[in-house]
Write the structure tokens for this entry.
Amino acid sequence: MRMRLFPILILAAGACDAQPVDSPAPADNAREFPRAAEAVTFAAADKVTVHGLYYQAPNPKALILLFHQAGSNKAEYATIAPRLVDAGYSALAIDQRSGDAMFGGRNETVAGLGASAGYLDAKADLVAALAWAQGKGRPVILWGSSYSSSLVLLVAAENPGKIAALLSFSPDEYLGDGNVVRGAAAKVQTPIFVTSAKDDAEIAAAKAIFDASPSPGKVRFVPQAGGVHGSSTLIAARNAAGAEENWRAVLAFLGAAAQ
């Protein structure tokens, strides 16, 4: 697949550093786009069993790997993944070892371990998902939400040539002191889509990471109608004012990347 992107760049200013704002919320992920999904498991390098749901599209343009935010699980994508399938993309949503029961779901990977791990520990699960996806014969796109939106940049930086594009929803320096995420972004040539909540602190954090990437196909989207933290920005029950605006930007990026 030849990757081609057109610019979609909406700029906004911000002045302070963002902090993770992942917090429990009621289940609100009724399946607006019903689609059967297949339960899958695979092992990370340290033998931890990673659980996921695989949503298959007929003759998919690409396979999108969906990674959740803190305190969450694969149910974060119960409405998002089926809509991606409707748009022509297969998708795998996993339970990372750092997570819990947001979105009314159960994190089976954490349940197997007995306790949630740290954010950076979960990188092994993303790498395992990438290895699993390599066997499917389709271009692979990474998609991260909150802390995993930072992890996808690390994975992309460490795996050049294996990733067709990536989407980062509300990235920041969640992974420790220093500029670890910006340092990773500086190595990413892959087309990237970066967005955030409609919040000055999040916008500023996302812009700093976006600016660090030398990718010629990078796209930064600042929501105007409404935006919330992480991939939740695409869920109408959580972002009634802006979910469709955000979906339009996401699908435009994916459509350009898939040409």
Summary: The two ends are 7 Å apart (CA to CA). The domain at 38-257 is CATH 3.40.50.1820 (Rossmann fold). Confidence is low (pLDDT under 50) at residues 1-34.
